[in-house]
Amino acid sequence: MSVPEKYALITGASRGIGKAAAELFSAHGYHLILTCSRSVKELETLAVELERTHGITCLPVQADMGCEADVERLFAHVHALDILVNNAGMAHFGLLSQMTSAQWHQIMAVNLDSCFYTCRAAIPLMLQKHRGRIINVSSVWGARGASMETAYSASKGGMNAFTRALAKELAPSNIQVNAVACGLIDTAMNACLSPEDMASLQEEIPAGRAGTPAEAARLIYQVAHAPEYMTGQIITLDGGWQT
C-alpha cells in the first residue's frame, strides 16, 4: 500500500525558524514549497540540500508575502497542500511617534495581510481533501504588547485574533488553525539588539536563555500533528518568560 504524498508550504524559510521548520518537515517526508523575500540564493541552496538529503521535492519561490500579487503567483505553483506555516514576518523597533505610515503599513502587510492572502488561497486546496493544518507563527507580544514595538505587537495581536476566528470558521471542514507564540528566539530578527540588551533580556527569562529555531520548529511540527480536536489555540514558547 503506497503512502500518500504530503505537502507543506512554509513562508520566510531562508533562515531562522522557517529554515528549521523546512528541515524538520522534509526529514519527515514532506514535499515543500518555501518562500523568502530577499535571501534567494540561501533559499535555493537549502532546497537543493533538502532534496538531496531527504529525497523530497522542494520548490523555492521568491515572494513578498505581504503583496497580494506575489502570493497569487506563488499559489499558481501549489496544487496540493496539507500544511501551511505562516512564518514570514518582520520587526520594527522605535517610538510610534517617529514611525512613518509606510513603515506601519509594511509591518501590517508582511505580518498580518500575508496570513489573509495565504489562507484564502490555501483553504480551497485543503477543502479538496477535507483536512488541513494552518500554523501561524506569532509572538508573546501579540498578547502582552511591547514598548517600542507597538506596530509589531498590534500585527501579532491581529494574527492571534485571526487564528481564533478562522479556526471556528474551518472546524466543520476538518481544518485546524493554531498559532505558536514565540518569546525570545535566537534569530536574525534580533540582530539589532546589542549583546548587553540580549543579556538583559535573558536574565528576565526563567529558563535563562533564548530559545532556538530548532525548538520553535519542533513545536510547529507537533502542532501540525496534534489531535484534530485542538484548534483555535495560541501556544506559547518562551521559557516561562511571559507566562
From TrEMBL:
Family to which the UniProt record says this protein belongs: Belongs to the short-chain dehydrogenases/reductases (SDR) family.
UniProt-listed InterPro entries: NAD(P)-bd_dom_sf, Sc_DH/Rdtase_CS, SDR, SDR_fam
Keywords carried by this UniProt record: Lipid metabolism, Oxidoreductase, Steroid metabolism
MF-aspect GO terms: 3-oxoacyl-[acyl-carrier-protein] reductase (NADPH) activity
GO BP terms in the entry: monocarboxylic acid metabolic process; steroid metabolic process
Name assigned to this protein: 3-oxoacyl-[acyl-carrier-protein] reductase FabG
PANTHER family, per database record: 3-OXOACYL-(ACYL-CARRIER-PROTEIN) REDUCTASE, 3-OXOACYL-[ACYL-CARRIER-PROTEIN] REDUCTASE FABG
EC number: 1.1.1.100
Lineage: Bacteria, Bacillati, Bacillota, Clostridia, Lachnospirales
Annotated organism of origin: Acetatifactor muris
